[in-house]
Amino acid sequence: MRAWVRRMKSHPAVRNLLAKIKEPHRLECDPLGVALRDAKRLRTVREALLETIDAALRAQDPRFARVVERCDLQGAKVVVVANELHITPRQLFRYRRSAVDAIAVAIREALEGRRAPLQPVVPPRPGEIWRWSIESRAS
Predict the structure, then answer these.
(1) Which range marks the domain in which residue 117 is found?
(2) Domain assignment of residue 41, yes or no
(3) Is 23 part of any domain?
(4) Per-residue pLDDT tens over the stretch 53-73
(5) For position 10, what pLDDT does the model report?
(6) Residue 99 phi/psi, 5° resolution?
(7) Residue 115 included in any domain
């Protein structure tokens, strides 16, 4: 399997949490969500997840937060959000992947009890995709 295909499927547990965000009864039963709620000492998994998303994306490109807000929290169609942002759907998926990476780092840090400063996740430019996938494979 190519490196870029594996990269697209990164952080399935985080993607699963984002998919359940509109269904509180399913979200409250998710083991990662429950661990996050307990680590953050909040009442609900939804509160803990929204706080983590906000903290993770605050230091990132504002488009990352917009993509997560519209696609995951509001359930808007990818094509509609891409048109709103004046980008292609393919670029939207790149932004979403970078946002999910940042959220995964924030969740891991919350579960480990660390508050390290978040480094911005910079998505590759379209011309750098090939070089980026080779570098990811090497590490």
Answers:
(1) 7-138
(2) yes
(3) yes
(4) 999 999 899 999 999 999 999
(5) 73
(6) -65, -45
(7) yes
